[in-house]
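Exercise 4. Each item below gives a protein and its sequence. For each, produce the structure-token representation.

Item: Superoxide dismutase (Natronospira bacteriovora).
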Amino acid sequence: MSHELMQLPYAMDALEPHISRETLEYHYGKHHQTYVNTLNDLIKDTPDADLDLESLIRKASGKLFNQAAQVWNHNFYWQSLSPNGGGDPEGELKVAIEREWGSVDAFRKAFTDSTVANFASGWGWLVKKADGGLAIVQTDDAETPLTDPSVTPLLTCDIWEHAYYIDYRNARPKYMEAFWKLVNWEFAARNFAG
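Answer:
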């Protein structure tokens, strides 16, 4: 099985002015594509070539894990954004967020503060725990909550510098402001319900 770069669910310029076409050309078109290409090179003519991406991530380590996890994390990230995003969640997800943090605004602040404070390149995640509660999780480098069977990823924000440096230079907090204008609550709600 050869892995392919996922099709974006929107046009390359659809996230402007918050995330530029140029950022997507580099982040999606070069960084994400390189993870896919490297992954395919690593698994070619090995037993791992028959595994789907999630199975591969759960058994891999080292460079193979890093490439596979970055492909999956980026696939998840692109779906966490929408040109029609922003605002507040609705329905059961909103109820769960308010139960955990008191309000959507308090959640947004907690997620932003945690994600901005992550010293590493990595990811900020909203996850659903086995008991149905929610948590904010930070992962470094290619780490992913997909490897933790006790949680379900709902939403992610990529905080590797290549996600925001073209548009925001080193101002990660400004990038986080833009993230909230694009956040795809419908995607998060489907993951929460699933």
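Check: The two ends are 26 Å apart (CA to CA).
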